[in-house]
Design goal:
Keywords: Hydrolase, Metal-binding, Signal. This protein is α/β, with parallel strands linked by helices and 315 residues long. 23% of the residues lie in helices and 17% in strands. The chain has six helices and nine strands. The chain has a nine-stranded mixed beta sheet, sandwiched between helices. The longest helix has 18 residues, at 193-210. The radius of gyration is 19 Å and the shape is globular. It binds 2-acetamido-2-deoxy-beta-D-glucopyranose (3 copies). One 2-acetamido-2-deoxy-beta-D-glucopyranose binds next to loops.
């Protein structure tokens, strides 16, 4: 049994065991549009912390509520949060810490020792009124480490977390990137692919927010966004390189069941978009209950609100 020094690993860890859960005084943030961030790779994974940093810098009110451990593949399953019997992800939380807690110096960064669904529920139901002044305007999950394309969306905790947000009445977008591997936020460096994914995700979120669409996304639906590899030496060396393409989760053998765009009423599959040479990111509209493709009218609403950022695949 390893006894953790109180200041083990990352800075800010020292007092985490003595955390006063929901009673802490919230840090004052500018009021405005608020984001809840979650994921399935864990609260200390680099991608979600990069998104937290970028979204905060961009002026959003941001709250992070994500699992204390890697919970990849837990889909929409839920468990009761429990105190930590072992140190949390990358030694970011001492063993013996409470079921929920926040970063010592930033009380907008929370872990929940349960599944992604539970972290989203806790963020919306137990934290957002204190830390965001009300329900979040939009939930962003991920960017997941690894793609979530097609049938994999059924098992993805990142897609599960976004779906849970929609079930709680909050619009949500799941992001995933094929690049990189799971690592601690303490390894983030300038120019990191995690920052590129984060900035690209905010480009999409900004486009949706600025569209003035109300509701932001059609009722009962969420977006599933997938990125190819990013970073120096790839086609996506900067966030501006991403070209977003409306897609579908599942193939329907070319049947014209979709909204008409790019000269066709059969949307490309998300796999084919991400697999296209260049830097193409897929944007699929899916039903949060079934995680199957949403219908034509929901696709149309998203096409309208994201018209400024959506493009077509090369023919
Ligand atoms: C808490 O946040 C600070 C920055 O606000 C960071 O330096 C520290 O590493 C974080 N610790 C954890 C465990 O998240
Ligand atoms: C996270 O969990 C998934 C699924 O169990 C596993 O494939 C992956 O390797 C894990 N990642 C790390 C860094 O442990
Ligand atoms: C979170 O909020 C829900 C709904 O209000 C409540 O039932 C639950 O007890 C709260 N959980 C905690 C840990 O405070």
């Amino acid at each position: 049994m390893v006894v953790l020094s109180p200041c083990f690993a990352a800075a800010g860890l020292c007092v985490l065991s003595a955390v006063e859960t929901v009673t802490a005084t919230p840090v004052a943030r500018q009021s405005g549009f608020s984001l809840l961030l979650s994921n399935d790779d864990g609260w200390a994974e680099a991608n979600i912390r990069a998104l937290y940093e970028e979204a905060t810098t961009a002026g959003y009110e941001v709250l992070l509520s994500a699992p204390a451990e890697n919970q990849s593949g837990t889909g929409s399953t839920s468990v009761e949060p429990t105190p930590l019997t072992e140190p949390g992800e990358f030694d970011s939380i001492p063993a013996g810490s409470p079921a929920e807690g926040h970063n010592t110096t930033d009380d907008h960064i929370w872990y929940v020792n349960a599944h992604p669904v539970d972290a989203v529920q806790y963020g919306v139901q137990n934290l957002s009124s204190t830390y965001l002044g009300g329900a979040p305007s939009l939930i962003l999950t991920g960017p997941n480490v690894g793609s979530n394309l097609g049938i994999v969306t059924q098992f993805s905790g990142t897609v599960g977390a976004a779906s849970e947000g929609v079930k709680l009445g909050i619009p949500a977008i799941a992001f995933s990137g094929s690049g990189g591997s799971e690592r601690s936020y303490t390894e983030l460096a300038a120019g990191d692919y995690s920052f590129i994914y984060a900035q690209a995700s905010l480009r999409l979120a900004d486009a949706l927010v600025n569209s003035g669409a109300s509701p932001l996304l059609p009722s009962g639906t969420a977006l599933n966004v997938n990125y190819p590899d990013a970073g120096a030496g790839t086609d996506c060396a900067s966030a501006d390189d991403f070209k977003f393409v409306l897609s579908r989760v599942y193939s329907v053998l070319g049947l014209p069941v979709d909204v008409t765009t790019c000269g066709s009423s059969s949307l490309p599959t998300e796999s084919s978009v991400v697999g296209t040479d260049g830097c193409y990111a897929s944007v699929s509209v899916f039903n949060a209950d079934s995680k199957l493709d949403a219908g034509k009218s929901a696709q149309q609403a998203v096409l309208d609100s994201l018209s400024g950022i959506l493009t077509c695949l090369p023919s």
